[in-house]
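RECORD TYPE: protein structure
NAME: Acetyltransferase
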Amino acid sequence: MPVAVHVRELTADDLDAAWELGRFAFGSDAQRPAHALTAVPGLTRYGAFDDAGRLVGKAVDLHHDQWWTGRAVPAADVGGVAVAPEARGRGVARAMLTALLRGAHERGAAVSALYPTVAAPYRAWGWEAAGVLRTVDLPTALLPRYRPTPHLTVRAGTPADLPAVAALYERVSRHRNGMLTRRGELFDFFAADGALPGDGVTLVEAAGDLVGYATWQRGRGYGADSVLTVDEALATTADAARELVGVLGSWASVAPTLRLCPLDGDAVSTHLPLESAREHERKLWMHRPVDVARAVSARGWPAHASGTVDFTLADPLAEWNTGTWRLTVADGAAELSRISGEADLRLDVRGFALLYAGAARARSVAQAGLLHQSAGVDPGALDLLGAGGPAQLLDYF
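PREDICTED:
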């Protein structure tokens, strides 16, 4: 049966108990990172307390921004959700996430993403599966070995190169959907030490300008089980992508396996032998709107998308989203405006998440029972909400 809990933002005095709760939930190492017990800018920690004042649940609102067709959309990405074993199944997580969504709404967030350990509870609270962060293994020897391109320079990166690396990431990511901007206080906090990510960074330059990079971790050994883990490999030209792939392929004699997260359809992936990839890991991610009107108005929209559609939305956790709305899209922008009455298209908030993230078409959403229409009405009209293509995440949080 549900238990009475009080949800509030955690204070410095609560952080030790929150760390222990997370350590037991996720099987973390007992060694605590310094940031776990200090205030961190760019995030809000929530805790649920029972009548005795004991912390029985925690969750974190990460103040990210996500790119959506060229515009940064404020997000409340969720991490670190944990509930004490004695309090599970008693409404604790629902109470925390209700408070988190309300706080995120008040601070101006528009959308939310999370990586679930189990999807069903989050579906009950309005998130829906929108994509998968895939990590694959490739035989390093199968990577094509191109001849060096004369006008390109390859060199090892230094901490002084990190701003250029961040700028190239933005050039690749900003016109996609869902990817983090990696801007803001939270990213600034963790980047303050200026250290290179992983073991090394390989840069590709053209006339002094960065056109490609790979960040990697060497791992251990040089036998048959040795793995080179590429945290990220991005390029803005086909020549730079070929150069990066050639450098990664040069590890074949000492690291027979290359492990990376491919970015769908980017310059580097088009040169990888993905037909030989073996899946190493899959991390499902889920999406939902925090505020549907902001989610629509804040993002960019394809210039060719145009139209109007009315729908009624049901959102049990965020009542400010519930109601009947008119979506108008034109000239690369869109807005939702409230209208009266009940529309012929009735959409569950999970269906909204699927459409907005480009994870499903309206007819599929209807077949899933997340969109209902009056007799004779074409549900495909709501495909307008999904204009812009599927979303993808490249960061795990």
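COMMENT: DSSP finds nine helices and 20 strands in the chain.
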